[in-house]
Amino acid sequence: MPKPLLFRFLLLLLSALPGLAVAQPPRGPLVVSPQVNPDKTITFRYLAPTAKDVKVSGQFEKAPVSMAKDGQGIWSVTVGPVKPDIYPYSFQVNGVTVMDPANVAFFPNERFKASLVDVPGDTHLIHAMRDVPHGSVNYEYYPSMEKATGSLVVYTPPGYDQNPSKKYPVYYLISGTTDTEETFFKVGKTNLILDNLLAEGKVKPMIVVMPYGNIAARVAEQTGGQKPADPTVRDGADAVKRANDFATDLVKNVIPYTEKNYRAIANRDNRAIGGFSRGGGQTLRTAFSNMDKFAWVCAYSSYLSPDEMERSYPSIVAKPDQTNKQLKLLWVSVGSDDFLYKGTVEFMDYLKAKKVNYKSLITDGGHTWMNVKKYVAETAPLLFQP
Does 9 reside within a domain? Predict the structure, then answer.
């Protein structure tokens, strides 16, 4: 294009820009949400000028709380004060549950999509970000069952990259039903808990491998199949089969991948396994069927029924002296308001009657990640100790 024509073209383009800017739809007002106030109250805001009804629902309230709309169309409410912790929450807009679009922190889950609010304590909570050395969190992919590709989140402790000759024990940590491999990281803050405990000299440095627990869903997703519904009976045939499939994947695929790609100490005394809810059931089934692989076992808000123990793992209770020698730690914990409380306490009583040694913790609260963080903080210092 000749220079005079090019010059005239640029002038026309520049003269059109103000009109283009005017033609853009106006932006809505800035929404800050959630806002944690100094008195531990929380202000939530949601922009919805045409909505008829907006509520906020979270584990800090017993029921959804109605919000009020201002002249700009922003709905808001202040709740609390709220006990310091990390809580999932969501908005109900005209009866439809949605995440908070003003908040980048979210709860990784297959089914629901909640946002997260972190209410800090007056002193640092165990999961808080502190001025201490921090480990790394890596995302990994490995060859899984039925030619699917599995996913892992892997924590390595501070100094891992600076000392290439040092090897570490490994804690395999499994989330609950509908949770993903990210949940122990993004909600459970396992990396920060371990960083803080390491800085206090309370735990041994360890690698933590967090796998995705729903193998059937992953295979269906990658092969064009339909994602199967969750089992309706916790110890039914379908649930047990899926747990056994997970155990096979962990033992045959996840552990070899970890020990090939990370500096893991490859023996049972330096392998721990733990999990929450469904992940706790997977933990117990995997450990009890692979006693040569794990010496440390942590069940958070989970249990196996006496019938399943007698049917599938008779040697665990028939030879308690052998079991107690093999397991350096068998941990069972649950909240007093947890819907799995009764079954978990029955499991503890069953182990006691069979003279199988275990450590336990019953907290207040329910089936929540607030409790899970407590359990991780309590059990991590016990792992891999002489």
Answer: no
Residue 299: closest CA among 331, 346, 335, 341:
331
The predicted structure's pLDDT at residue 213 = 84
Q: Is 14 within a domain?
A: no
For residue 243, pLDDT beyond 90: no
144 plus 255 within the same structural domain: yes
Q: Of 119, 144, 179, which residue is a domain's last?
A: 119
pTM greater than 0.90 (yes/no): no
Residues 213 and 143 in one domain: yes
At 21 the pLDDT is: 47
Q: Is the pLDDT of residue 296 over 50?
A: yes
Predicted pLDDT at 288: 97
Provide the edge-to-edge strand list for the sheet that holds 329-335. Answer: 136-143, 149-156, 207-211, 170-174, 271-276, 296-300, 329-335, 359-363
Residue 177 near residue 277, CB atoms below 8 Å:
yes
| Residue 232 in domain | yes
In this structure, are residues 76 and 37 in contact, taking their beta carbons and an 8 Å threshold? no
